[in-house]
User: Fold this.
Amino acid sequence: MTLDVPRGKRRALMKTIKLTTVTLLTLLALAGTAHAVTPKTEMGAPTGSIQTEQPVEISLSSKVPIKFYGFVSAEFMWADSQLSSFGTLNNGLGVAGASPYNKNMVGFNRVVDETVDGRNNAFISATIQNSRFGFHLKPYDFDGKNFWVDARLELDFFSTGNLSAQSVLPRIRRAYASIGQEKWKLLFGHEWDLFSPLNTATLNIGANLWQQGNLGFRRPQICFVFNTPVADKSGVEVAMSVNLPSNRMNFDDPGNTTSIPMLEGRFGFSHKLPAGMMRLYASGMFARHKNAIAGASDVNNWAVAFSFDIPAHRFFKPSGEFHYGYSPGLMLSIASDTTRQRTMAGWGQIKSLWLDWFETNIGGGVEMLKSFEVANGWVKRNMMGFANLKFKPLKFFIIGLEYNYLCTDYQGSGSSRANAIFTNVLFYF
Assistant:
């Protein structure tokens, strides 16, 4: 039996095969130049935040460095206007049977359109769904091998659709295995994007300013990172990855049916300062989706980002990211994947460590689309500002209080605003 593959798809398939072959040959060439010891940095989201930091761990073996870790997150909030945790990015007006909002606090990141929703009243809420746990096999050379192996399985209980306070299901956050040496690492599995690698210091763990200026998430991938020192206190990093071109796995997804993987790349520079490690990154991504208009040409999804984390002083640690691109919806942008939309986004914050047990953070983010590219009733601008206090009576116990100001602009409806105050108490183990 023979397969009749159209010429256009055959050409795209050959390009993909050639790209994969060149990438693998490059990895092998770089791998041959390194020597085996424990790596200096962990790949993924490299800055300390609730998304990645873990001040304590439980050792499960005296011979193999496998750890059990996690935290309990108890959040309580009040807001003066109805909010949504992600959901379809429109106000439901004129969309038959549509329910665009997830009215729960697990990851609230936009305001319900006040001109359309008549039940836009104040509320209180609480959730523990951002609690998490995981197992981590730290880089281990198995008694003298010339390489090490690293693996992780991490889960939480995040769900925007489950409104039960008692019955929630686990969700995979990170699940990967990797092999490496001192200067390189090759990873297979579900891990943080290379693109836009920093995370925010908000206590709103489930939202993390996504769709409010922060881009980049986690997804299945094959990822290679090469890092090397360039001076006494400095180093550089070059990384590339081949990724699932969607946030869904179904075969008929508009991204998966293009048969082209998403590609990501990152270049980083680090330098040790007295108050911590300075990190600068330039990153980019490219994917493709089927056009929402039947028969129209595919939509190219691409974006570039610049990220900085500069701990100038313990009282003044600024960090942030700037993004520009077209249709990078799969990076948790408000832009579409299947419609051409230009986006500009960014976020920034200042962390201050006043005492060993007291920290403050102030920051915010915004994402904006070109107005004429947005359909009536859809989000064209979304932003949030935050300020929080973190009290740490013990290194594994945080009592946090945060204020949020949110503003969401819907095409044709104007701005909807909300003020929210919430606490987040975290116990690490």
In short: The helical segments are 7-31. Residues 7-31 form the longest helix (25 residues). The longest strand covers residues 379-394.
